[in-house]
Amino acid sequence: HQGEFRFNDLWRAMPKVSKKVLIEHLRQMEIQGLIVRREENGFPPEVFYDLSEKGKELGPILAALDEFGS
Q: How far apart are the C-alpha atoms of 7 and 61, rounded to whole Å?
């Protein structure tokens, strides 16, 4: 977890993922309560994503899985 990310920053960080697939996954994680979506009005409008408290609780679990996989 490194704070809020703009949609385009997330998309650029995953070059093999289409925008459509990323949007679908972000929506699903928002429904599950893992992330929080925030919109800022402007031109063009900006969308930001951040981990929710529930999402932050997964950090140690994911770190342990990463360590196990290594």
A: 25
pTM over 0.85: no
C-alpha closest to that of 1 among 70, 37, 52, 65: 52
Contact between residue 49 and residue 4 where contact means Cβ atoms under 8 Å apart: yes
Task: State the burial class of residue 40 (Cβ atoms within 10 Å of its Cβ: 0-12, 13-18, 19+).
Answer: exposed
Whose CA is closest to 35, among 69, 4, 61? 4
Residue 1 has pLDDT above 80, yes or no: no
Provide the strand spans (E) within 1-70: 5-6, 35-40, 46-51
CA distances from 48 to 8, 9, 26 (A): 9, 10, 11
